[in-house]
Amino acid sequence: MGGADLHDQLRLQRYTIQRAMKMRKYYLTIFLGLIDMVLINSYIIYRCVQAERAPRKAAPTHAEFMRLMQTALLGVGAADFEGDLSAQALVDTPVPPSPTPRYTLPGRHTTKQVDIYRVTRGKNGKETRKRRQYDCKVCSLLRPGKIPWETTFYCVECTKARSKGVTGDAACAKGKVYLCQKVRQHDPSAATNSATSSQIWHGL
Fold first, then answer.
1. Which pTM value belongs to this model?
2. Where are the bilayer-spanning segments (predicted)?
3. Are residues 65 and 92 in the same domain?
4. Cβ partners under 8 Å of residue 95, min gap 6
5. pLDDT tens digits for 144-161?
């Protein structure tokens, strides 16, 4: 059955949330079942990762995993939720450099945010200004048939080279080379993937 029966056996054990609570609304029961599935999937992934890291060590039990997870959740504080956690900020915020970076952006190439804004009006009638977002060139190529990531960053030097010798409306039609700051899993054979779309675009 492709492991579905084993999954159900784990979900229906004594650590299930769905069976520990009774709800009058059926959709709440379904929601608790989904949480159980998430926890079981997390446990399965955790076991696989631990088996690769320490093959000779005994696999962690379900109870051990639950204790580790609860300890981690209890350690979460207000500081973990500080800052802008919106989807736009997570996509457009530059990725902090790694202590041992595998890739580096060419010295002559720099990214810059667009200076074009759009005005949006919220439900309360308050107007806010947001930078316009454009499709990332790399994401458009690596995500065929899917909506690419949008970004407000573009490469200054590549944009200049692209419109070199072109003026007027033709230069505007060429457009900027938009590159998001998202780390992409572009090389399955690599031990680590720490390159952003900007670094991949520049021939890494």
1. 0.40
2. 26-46
3. no
4. 181, 182, 183, 196
5. 666 667 888 888 888 877
